[in-house]
Amino acid sequence: MSLTWEQPPPSSHGPGSAGMGVQQRLAREIAERPGEWALMLTGVGVDVANSAGRRLRRGVIEPENPYGKFEAVTRKQDDGTYNLWAKFIGGE
Question: So what's the pLDDT on residue 61?
Fold first, then answer.
């Protein structure tokens, strides 16, 4: 067995990925309706739902977040997948 030296393909996760762009757009939409819960992700695995919720609460989805703080919760569905709800709770 030998090594092959090459650059890995671009990541499909993290800043600049298509998924992150969608989540940024959704975070902006949620911030436009403070105090209202929005169903942000449906039918995903627990790790995806929890990770997205953490990123939203910590400001990673919207790093230069002009809006303020978000809440996020996940709930297991009858089919075993998870949904993520989020709401904007105000500025700092």
Answer: 64
